[in-house]
C-alpha cells in the first residue's frame, strides 16, 4: 500500500487541489494493511488492476473533499489503554542447534504463525510489541460523535476465506466503534478510523501455540473490540 501512495500520489493530490484549492503541501496520507484487496500497484510482474488503481485514487480524493466541505466547530479529547492479548511478535529466537543466522536479529527466524518444535525459545521473542490502543475522539460542539481515530500496533488479521475484499480489522473496528457510540445514520456521517501502529513483525497469533481453526472473520470480530472499555 505504501508503494501505491508513491505511484498514485499525484493523481489523488491533483483531484483534491483542483476541486477544493487545498495546497499540495498540506496533504498527508497514511495507509493500513490488508491481504484482501485487488492490487493497485505492480507488486509482481503483470499483477496490477488498473481500474482499481484509478478508483482508489478517486475515492481517496472524494473522502478529503467531503471532509473539507463538512468542516464544523468541534471539541477533541484523547485516551489510551492496553490490549496485549492480540499482539505477538512473529520472530522468535531459535535454539543454537540447527539455527539459521539472521544478519539483523542474530539467531532468529520468522515462525510464519507456526510453532517450530525444538527450535523456539518461548521466553525470547526477537523484538517487542506495543500493546497500547490510543484513541483521539472528536465531537460536534453539541456533544454528538463526529469522528474517532484509534491506533494499534497490529499488522493485520486475515482469516476472511477465499475471494473476499475488505479492509481487515481496521474496517471492522470503524464499523463497531460507530455502533458503540450510537453514531449510525448521522448527518453528516460519523467517521471511524483505525490506523496501523508500529507492527511490521506483530500479528494476532501466538506462535507458541498451534494454530486454532476458526470460521471466517471470527478472529477479526474479536480484535475489533480492542477499543471498547
Describe this structure in words.
- This protein is of the alpha+beta class and about 230 residues long.
- It has 3 domains: about 1-70, no CATH class; about 75-90 and about 125-229, no CATH class; about 90-125, no CATH class.
- It is built from 4 helices and 10 strands, in the order ααββββββββαββα.
- The relative contact order is 0.16.
- It has a 4-stranded mixed beta sheet, covered by helices on one side. A 4-stranded antiparallel beta sheet has the order 4-5-3-6, with no helix packed on it.
Features:
10 strands; about 230 residues; alpha+beta; about 25% strand; 4 helices; four-stranded mixed β-sheet; about 25% helix; 3 domains
Write the layout of secondary structure elements.
Layout: H1 2-20, H2 50-69, E1 74-82, E2 88-89, E3 91-94, E4 101-102, E5 106-110, E6 120-125, E7 132-140, E8 145-152, H3 168-180, E9 191-196, E10 202-203, H4 218-223
Parallel strand pairs: 8-9
Antiparallel strand pairs: 1-7, 2-10, 3-5, 3-6, 4-5, 7-8
| Strand numbers in spatial order across the main sheet | 1-7-8-9
Alpha carbon gyration radius:
20 Å
Instruction: Tell me the number of structural domains.
Output: 3
Strand runs, count: 10
Largest sheet: 4 strands, mixed
Give the class from helix and strand content and strand pairing: alpha+beta
Low-confidence stretches: 1-5, 96-109, 111-118
The total count of helices amounts to 4
* Distance from first to last alpha carbon: 31 Å
Amino acid at each position: 500500500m505504501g508503494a501505491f501512495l508513491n505511484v498514485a500520489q499525484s493523481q489523488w493530490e491533483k483531484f483534491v487541489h483542483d476541486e477544493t484549492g487545498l495546497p499540495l503541501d498540506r496533504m498527508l496520507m497514511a495507509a493500513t494493511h490488508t491481504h484482501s484487496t485487488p492490487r493497485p500497484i505492480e507488486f509482481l510482474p503483470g499483477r496490477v488492476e488498473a481500474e482499481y488503481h484509478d478508483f482508489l485514487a478517486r475515492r481517496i480524493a472524494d473522502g478529503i473533499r467531503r471532509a473539507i466541505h463538512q468542516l464544523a466547530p468541534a471539541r477533541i479529547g484523547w485516551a489510551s489503554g492496553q490490549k496485549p492479548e492480540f499482539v505477538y511478535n512473529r520472530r522468535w529466537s531459535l535454539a543454537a542447534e540447527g539455527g539459521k543466522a539472521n544478519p539483523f536479529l542474530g539467531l532468529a527466524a520468522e515462525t510464519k504463525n507456526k510453532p517450530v518444535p525444538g527450535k523456539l525459545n518461548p521466553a525470547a521473542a526477537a523484538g517487542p510489541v506495543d500493546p497500547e490502543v490510543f484513541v483521539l475522539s472528536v465531537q460536534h460542539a453539541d456533544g454528538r460523535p463526529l469522528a474517532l481515530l484509534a491506533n494499534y500496533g497490529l499488522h493485520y488479521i486475515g482469516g476472511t476465506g477465499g475471494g473476499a475484499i475488505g479492509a481487515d480489522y481496521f474496517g471492522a473496528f470503524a464499523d463497531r466503534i460507530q455502533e458503540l457510540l450510537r453514531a449510525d445514520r448521522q448527518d453528516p456521517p460519523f467517521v471511524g478510523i483505525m490506523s496501523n501502529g508500529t507492527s511490521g513483525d506483530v500479528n494476532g497469533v501466538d506462535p507458541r501455540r498451534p494454530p486454532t481453526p476458526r470460521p471466517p472473520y471470527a478472529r477479526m470480530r474479536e480484535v475489533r473490540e480492542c477499543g471498547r472499555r
